[in-house]
Specification:
CATH class of the largest domain: Mainly Beta
Oligomer: single chain
Structural class: alpha/beta
Strand order of the largest sheet: 1-5-4-3-7-10
Number of domains: 2
Radius of gyration: 26 Å
Helix content: 40-55%
Strand content: 15-25%
């Protein structure tokens, strides 16, 4: 069952936003004391702190390529300087008359090939690591809508929608106001998290393999969390996957990263990485609120589904 909020009843939404739901209560309780780790910083020019091995690998690759690019740029600038000085009309009034230089031509062909081979030898393993989806401990389906995200936990058959705090769906107008600030504070955020924080969050346990299935219901959206090193386009009619394993508890923010319409800037992503105990409490509350399958029942169903396969393997 999906929790949906009507955009046609703003007065009712304001009242509803003043009272947190059961799942939101447990989400906020699980999030108490969590640091905001993955968020943009004023004046920041570098990556957000890496919270996964994938992100660290991407940061390392970026730094390595930056060193190569810098060395090439300095080398070319030096060559241009040497040529400008040594072969100026004043120093070299009678230029040499030739059209080919085999060693130079071989060099400017072979050296770039070698550089690309070096870059590829490091970048391809990182790409494969991103695209080879491991077995999931937790699976979440993220669906992009104009303009919010819907999350479904298929292992437990429940789903809910996630709106930016301050969006029309929460009684706002996509801009800061005293009412929006009150909602942010009630949810445990500050004014700095406006346009980043959502009324509900994707909640996942720390140290577990999370597989996110990404799709869209209308136009192309993109589910992106920079601190995890993940970005995947959601395309209507298709189901793509990404994965991450967060190493630290905290609150992480992302944004839709495809231009998807007039309110593209107002569909942020909030992921809360919590302890396994806090995740279990939130999961039970979410199952109760959204009408999902209880954890014990889901485990029993999974075991029942796997039993025939196991018997066939023995035979």
């Amino acid at each position: 069952m999906r929790k949906t909020l009507s955009l046609l009843a703003p007065a009712a939404l304001v009242v509803a936003s003043a009272t947190a739901t059961l799942a939101q209560d447990f989400e906020r309780a699980a999030g108490e004391g969590l640091r905001i780790i993955g968020a943009p910083e004023q004046g920041g020019i570098y990556w957000q702190p890496a919270a996964t091995e994938l992100a660290r690998d991407i940061h390392w690759l970026d730094d390595m390529i930056l060193v190569i690019i810098t060395a090439i740029t300095l080398f070319v600038i030096a060559l241009l300087g040497i040529v400008a000085v040594r072969y100026s009309r004043k120093r070299n009034p009678t230029p040499a008359m030739f059209t080919h230089n085999t060693p130079v031509e071989v060099t400017w062909t072979v050296v770039p090939i070698l550089i690309l081979i070096v870059i590829g030898s490091f970048s391809l393993p990182i790409l494969f690591e991103q695209q080879e989806i491991p077995e999931a401990d937790v699976t979440v389906k993220a669906t992009g809508f104009q303009w919010y995200w819907g999350y479904e936990y298929p292992d437990h058959d429940f789903a809910f929608d996630s709106y930016m705090i301050g969006s029309p769906a929460t009684g706002g107008e996509n801009r800061m106001s005293p009412e929006v600030l009150a909602q942010l504070q009630e949810a445990g955020y500050t004014k700095d998290e406006f346009q980043l924080a959502t009324d509900t969050s994707m909640v996942v346990p720390v140290g577990k393999t999370i597989v996110v299935q990404v799709t869209a219901a209308d136009v192309i959206h993109s589910w992106t969390v920079p601190a995890f090193g993940v970005k995947q386009d959601g395309i209507p009619g298709r189901l793509a996957e990404l994965w991450f394993e967060a190493e630290a508890e905290g609150i992480y923010f992302g944004q839709c990263s495809e231009l998807c319409g007039i309110a593209h800037a107002f569909m942020p992503i909030t992921v809360k990485v919590v302890s396994e105990e806090a995740y279990a409490l939130w999961l039970d509350a979410a199952i109760e609120e959204y009408g999902g399958t209880p954890r014990d029942a889901a485990t029993a169903e999974a075991a029942a589904g796997a039993a025939p396969v196991a018997v066939a393997a023995v035979d």
